[in-house]
Every structure is written in structure tokens, then in C-alpha cells.
Amino acid sequence: MRALRVSQALIRSFCSTAQRNRVENRVPEKQKIFQVAAQWAGLVEDNGLPVYLKGGRNDNILYLVTMVLTMGGTAYSLYFLAWAACPHKK
């Protein structure tokens, strides 16, 4: 009987949803340090462009090609699913 109580206590402590050790979120602090260092090194400039277009013309072309291929693949997949869902004449 005692073994049953001990095993129940172990299971309860292992499966507890309460967090035993509070872990402090230090991500914002580290992020600020990284951003200040990047600005100091001249790596970051805020020109209002999204990050995927900051590389210039080549990034813009790559983005457009990726979007066209993604949309084309999605449209083809939806067309094929609609074709497969319709009954075919034999």
C-alpha cells in the first residue's frame, strides 16, 4: 500500500502543471543588446522596407518568382483536387 502511495506521489509531482522553478524570460533583454550592437556596427538601417526586400533588386526578383511559383502550385493543386472529386465517364 505504501508503494502505491509513493508511486502516486511521484506521478503527481511529475505531471504537475504548476511550474516549480520560475524561469525568467530574458529574450527581450538579449534582443535589445543585439539590436544596439547591430545598429552600432551599421548593419541595420530602418528604411521602411520589409526584411525580405532589403537586399535590393535581386531580393525583389527572388520574392516575385517565389510568389508566382507558390500561387501557381496552389492553383494547380486545387484544380487537380477538383478534377479528382468529379466523377469521370468510362
Task: Describe the protein's architecture and organization.
The longest helix has 29 residues, at 57-85. The chain has helices at residues 2-14, 27-41, 57-85. It has a single domain, classed as Irregular (Cytochrome C Oxidase, Chain J), CATH 4.10.91.10. The model has no long low-confidence stretch (mean pLDDT 81). It has 3 helices and no strands. By secondary structure, it is mainly alpha-helical.
Fold topology:
Blueprint: H1 2-14, H2 27-41, H3 57-85
Low-confidence stretches: none
Q: Please identify, by name, the CATH architecture.
A: Irregular
Q: Structural class, from helix and strand content?
A: mainly alpha
Question: Given the structure, what is the number of helices?
Answer: 3
The percent of residues in helical segments reads 55-70%
CATH class: Few Secondary Structures
What's the total number of strands? 0
How much of the sequence lies in strands comes to under 5%
Using brief descriptors, characterize the structure shown.
90 residues; 63% helix; Cytochrome C Oxidase, Chain J; 3 helices; mainly alpha; 0% strand
What's the quick description here?
With 90 residues, the chain is mainly α.
